[in-house]
Amino acid sequence: MFHYELGQAELRRLRQHPALPRSSGQRQEWQAEYLDTSDRALIRQGLQLSRVRQGWEWSMVLEQQNEQGGWGILGKAYCGPSGLDFSFVTDKKLKASLRALGSKLQSWGVAEVHQEHLQVDTVAGPVGVSLERINLHHRGQSQVVGRLSLDVMEGDGRNVHLLARALLEKHSLCFGHQSLVSLLAGLVAEDQPVRAAKAKPTLPDTRDGGEAFCHIARNCIQHLSLNLPGLQTSDEPEFVHQARVAIRRLRSALKLFGPWLPESFVQEFSERWRIQANALGDCRNLDVFLGETLPLMERDLPGEAVMGRLRAAACRKQRQARKSARQHMNSHQTRLLLLDFEWALLQLRFQKDMPSLKKLARKRLLSRARQVTCLGEAVCQAGPEARHELRIAFKKLRYALEFFASLFDTQDTVRYLAGLVDLQEVLGHLNDLATAELLVDDLLPATAARQPRAWLAARSGLLVEALPEAIGHFLAVSPPWAPGKPKACPERAPQG
User: Do 45 and 168 belong together in one domain?
Assistant: First the structure.
């Protein structure tokens, strides 16, 4: 129901929490040795092969990665401690492929799992608690990771939610579980630069809009969770960017499905996630300014003393903003939000008139495309605020289409999305320049800010001149969800 990761020391502290029984629970131990070729041929095919020992028994396990990033068992058979036997694989082509790789397969990592299963008795019924200490090994390197799982045994799960909140009050728990192979992959890549995780939107195989929303929301949470560790330990700007994108996508999904969600759910979590996004805003703005805008300004204004002053002031402010962002995203408030949101998803009830997924997708995409058309046709004569509003509308349309992309023709969707992303980039650059003006005014006195402001104004002017033609080209493209151009703009653009 609820799953967390934690460090070895935190796992020991957690075991002493007064809510957990003092007596030992049921214990299990097992070991998994992962096999692959030196160039990771199996992993690249979305497969993982392991030899598992539990007690005196050995088994060969073949798993396949699903669209959600999880792993499902393709086959399992008892075996000996050595040798490879793929007779349990039913797919003939796959079996032949595995046998061909047999001599090249080698051990690349071992996970030793020590589990303790506990039962916590509450007034509303017992809660199942599983604690795991996982020892990871890879070519002389070792690491210990803890995992916690809380599951309902009786009742509607409220007791599990309350226990989780009590544990979060005292302990630093990271929301979500990585698979053993993902944990091992992290150990393997310890000496390599850590990369931020990008969004990988998928849809479940369903016609139900409610199931689709929950899947999209959890996909966004996973995107966020994968970037939180890097945000805390690395100064690489992409971690902040991707964490912010994950939250924006989630807020966009809340609005997209809003007409069929409980109003109280949308209001509460739209606001709570807005606070999270804002906590990253200053850090992201300064990352863009220092990494993209200021280098171009320094290139075009060489030798200007004010450039050194501007960079030094921006770096000081960036350090403060990054520290603040880290504190907020590692706070009890953030951990509680992740728990409460997952609990709310489990309890969610949708409107009875919710249409089938494809009808819902067409309806919402059409609404968002109309809004883009209205704003796009008017923006040529408008100022920065209208361009900002258009950029947000484009972003909502892009996220919506990425959520629903698998419902429509792939070629049409790719072509339309490419134009959408290109135009959003132009609008994004304009917004970055507007933000840079505010930063320059904040970081420099008025007399020193004149040259940088003049450079920013000239740069913005060039982009604004090219905007009408770019918007016209995009609006002429037929969208993948409906033949022909989106309907003409009514007097007032529909909201949402």
Answer: yes
Q: What angle (nearest 5°) sits at the alpha carbon of residue 435, between those of residues 429 and 439? A: 135
Phi, psi of 252 (to 5 degrees): -65, -40
Specify the pLDDT at position 192.
61
- Residue (of 395, 355, 101, 124) closest to 248 by Cα position: 395
Alpha-carbon distance 97 to 222, whole Å? 32
Count the domains in the chain.
Answer: 3
One-letter amino acid identity for 458?
Answer: A
What average pLDDT does range 195-219 have in this prediction?
90
Of 148 and 469, the structure prediction assigns the larger pLDDT to 148
Residue partners of 325: CB distance under 8 A and separation at least 6: 231, 240, 279, 280, 282, 283
Can you say whether residue 176 is alpha, beta or left, with left for phi > 0 and alpha for psi between -120 and 50 degrees? left
pTM over 0.85: yes
459 & 408 share domain: yes
295, amino acid identity: P
pLDDT at 491: 47
Of 302, 319, 354, the last residue of a domain is: 354
Indicate whether 193 pLDDT > 70.
no
